[in-house]
Write a structure and sequence with these properties.
By secondary structure, the chain is mainly alpha-helical. The protein has one domain. The chain is built from 7 helices and no strands. The relative contact order is 0.21. Pfam families: DUF1097 (PF06496).
Amino acid sequence: MSAYLALAVSVGLLAVLDTWLYVGPLAALLPGLVWISFVAWGCFFQSGAGTKGLTTAIVGMTFGGIVGMVAVMLAGGPLAGLGIMAAPVAVGLGAFVICLAAKVPLLATIPASVYGFASIAGPILLANLEPQAALGPMVASVVIGAVFGYVSELLANALTKKSA
């Protein structure tokens, strides 16, 4: 089969499995967080796929999640006195840190960190978790998604017709 069709089949089949995990066996542990898995899966491919994409998606999104967690804590803590500006200032500081951190080779793919920064809001808002408690489910979903990306690439390669 063509590489194009093989990737479509691979991603389609694995998307069923990934979603089933989140509405079935992982529903209590990672409530409503399947979208983070899909963001990480996309990040895997955007970051070059293979081992590089896997590493970039996991490390970058995890770092972004940590920065996002700290931003939420700052907005509700030391910056709370800024009122309506607490969250915007905290987000601005987080974005600043993410951009500065891109000097580190493992964090050079800024979008990966931004995806993680945005993703931490999911478990905080959807599962009503404290920022520190939200990090674990978020990172678990990132790892699951990045691994699904890796597996979908392997499966697509296996399904692709090889020319002689």
